Amino acid sequence: MSRKALIAANWKMYKTPAEAKAFVDAFLPLVAWHTRDEIALFPSPVLLPTVVEGCKGSNVAVGAQNIHFAEEGAFTGETSIVQLKAVGGTHTLIGHSERRQYFAETDEIVNKKLHTALKHGVVPVVCIGEVLEDREAGKTASVLKTQVTGAFAGIVPEAAKPIVIAYEPVWAIGTGKTATPEIAADAHRIIRAEVATLLGADVAAAMRILYGGSVKPDNATALIGLEEIDGALVGGASLKPDSFTAIVKY
Ligand code: PGA
Predict the structure, then answer these.
(1) Residue 73: how many CB atoms within 10 A of its CB?
(2) H-helix or E-strand containing 49?
């Protein structure tokens, strides 16, 4: 089955509105006729209106890096899915490893957020991945299975179609250490098999699984070019229009 790749930029806590606008103005013409892959930008919440406005009518989607699972309420500092949609965001990351590591997000929270995103028709990009100690202890497969099972609790096959998974080995994020294509493909096979167990072979075959972790222009082809890998979630190398364009056009 052929899956259309998604190439996504995770800007993390970088850029001012002026810098975000400058990026969009430079980037859109560079990818204007690119239809092979889907493209999405994930800026900080305060940048969303600027980036959505700049990308209007283009082939580039815009999403949040995080949402709360509640639709509204007394949750100081959080962003809701209703707010995201109201400013024109169509996608959201869920459970990025930095959320898990620094903001105590658990598989249970990830699961609640996934239900919220699906309920509101926002494309969820669910991030999973093992830390170095897990890998060194030979626990990668069991960690990935636990994360997928936890994230997907209560999700039925009919509702799962929009879900995208991003496999991001935590030891490869922002470290310059990329998983080899073999390591990444192996992890992607484990994840897809787990999705098949939970939701059936058809859902698993159609689900996009992205790779993330130090994706750069010079390693993008070797990774995204693999049958098992359906795109990339890019941090550092997505901050400049030129390097992100080179990855989009791997
Ligand atoms: P990186 O970040 O490309 O800078 O490693 C990836 C991510 O955190 O999504």
Answers:
(1) 8
(2) helix 48-55
CA distance 147 to 130: 9
- The amino acid that residue 191 corresponds to is I
What is the Rg, in whole angstroms, of the alpha carbon atoms belonging to the chain? Answer: 17
Give all domains of the chain, ordered by start, each with its CATH number: 6-248 (3.20.20.70)
- Per-residue pLDDT, 177: 85
pTM: 0.97
From the CB of 214, is ligand 1 less than 6 Å away?
A: yes
Which residues of the chain fall below pLDDT 70? 1
Residue 247 pLDDT: 98
C-alpha dist (Å) from residue 184 to 49, 51, 188, 189, 227? 34, 31, 6, 9, 11
Q: What is the pLDDT of residue 176?
A: 84
pLDDT at 187: 98
CA distances from 135 to 52, 83, 126 (A): 38, 38, 20
> Ligand 1: which of 13, 173, 177, 239 to mutate, most ligand atoms within 8 Å of CB?
173
- Enumerate helices (H) and strands (E) in the chain, giving the number of each: 11, 8
* HSE-CB of 147 using CA atoms within 13 angstroms: 28
> How many angstroms is it from 73 CA to the middle of ligand 1?
31
